[in-house]
Amino acid sequence: MTDAATLAGLDPATLNDVLRLAGSTGFDRIQEQIRRTGGCTDPIRLQGSTVTRDRETGHVLHHYSTDTEPGGVLRIACGNRRASRCPSCAWTYAGDTYHLIRAGLVGDPAKGTPHTIRDHPRVFATLTAPSFGPVHNRPGNRPCRCGTRHSEGGPELGTPLDPESYDYAGAVLWNNHASELWRYFTIYLRREIAKRAGLTQKAAREQSRVSFGKVAEYQKRGAVHFHAVIRFDGPDGPDSPPPAWATLDLLTDAIRAAAARVTVDVDPAGDQPARTLTWGTQIDVRPIRAFGDGEEITEQAVASYVAKYATKAAETTGTVDRRIGNKEALTLLGVPDHPRRLIEACLDLHPLYPDRKLRDWAHMLGFRGHFSTKSRRYSTTLGALRQVRADYRAAQQRAALGLPNPDDEEATTLTLAHWTYAGHGHTPGESWLAANIRRDIQHNREIAREELPALLDLEGAAT
What we know:
- This protein is of the alpha+beta class.
- It folds into 2 domains: 4-76 and 383-462, no CATH class; 87-132 and 167-380, no CATH class.
- Helix content is 39%, strand content 15%.
- The chain contains 13 helices and 11 strands.
- The chain has helices spanning 4-8, 12-23, 27-36, 87-106, 168-176, 178-197, 201-207, 248-261, 299-309, 328-333, 337-349, 382-401, 428-462; strands at residues 44-54, 60-65, 74-76, 122-127, 209-218, 224-233, 264-266, 275-277, 284-287, 372-374, 413-424.
- It has a 5-stranded antiparallel beta sheet, sandwiched between helices. Strands 1, 2, 3 and 11 form a 4-stranded antiparallel beta sheet that branches.
- A hairpin with a 5-residue loop joins strand 1 and strand 2.
- The two termini are 43 Å apart.
- It holds the Pfam family RepSA.
- It comes from Streptomyces corchorusii.
- InterPro entries: RepSA (IPR046828), RepSA_streptomyces (IPR048241).
- This is Replication initiation protein.
């Protein structure tokens, strides 16, 4: 399983549990279950059974019960998207996000978009928050305003030059209303498109459709910003070409104008003044070219970038990935000064804006929206991708058991299932085993990724 030196480095409780597992009669099955979850960090434990019968005769074709499993439970992956919670499930989530975004860029008929989608105007837009005070940064080849040339990845990057004058309340209120800012942006975008096309909004909707897929990312200063693929379609969505007036330049101009129009008012409360929230002035809009056209922003790069940040959240700024009940917990958790002040601002503002639930989202620095969203007709859905994977695994299982496909017209089987929740997580020894399995899976993926170019070269030479 592993060498003695590795085992010797474990704490006594984990070592004893590893030895208990290794000596148990159900060790191979436990290992198989953990491997099937991909080495999930916090698996769901289920108890129950399934029975597959012949619908006409009632004869039992297959029966499964967790009574025969080690510990009487079946482990399934937790499905958490956060890499800080479960690297294994986050990897799957990132892969699904990648295919969802890519399908809306290159086309995939199986995912609801034709290959002609590559001819539609589309851009990669970034919308950011305004300034809440000067912060340490790396402005090109110039030193920071503090006079220092900071190293890349330095812990001081993104932190305020003067924490006492930094608008922490404004920062967390902006994060808290970021989803509303995005909603108003999508409304104004359609209006600006119609205005530039010289059409009424109704006429513009009848001739075109705007589709998008976006992801939220935290800057080092703790402010949320959005990356979005925004695409022009025809009136029937990706299956129809956009009208002649729906150009890349028109879309770019409309995005900038719409972002500049958006405002969200926050009423005064307590010692907090009235605020008008807006997008920052640093709005980046770049055209996405077909892969291989020599453009820096390619379909592959965009899909990979969005997928990367779909599994990250505020913990990238130094905060934690769980709710915080009080300020005392911040010291125990060792949260750095800047994110600590942002969290404290959330806790202080909660009584003033109770409907904004700032205390519940303090660990997210106030942000309460979804990290990845898309419009209805952009491409497929994450749920559909998960269902395809589940159906594939179910088909494999039926084939291994010799059971007919239930979708077959001649199939006469009926499956009855009963499951109950029995907890979650691992014992210390199981956690160690899952970490090793997860590491091996990741290692195999890296090897496969390195070997892929060589295999493609061999195929090219053979043809």
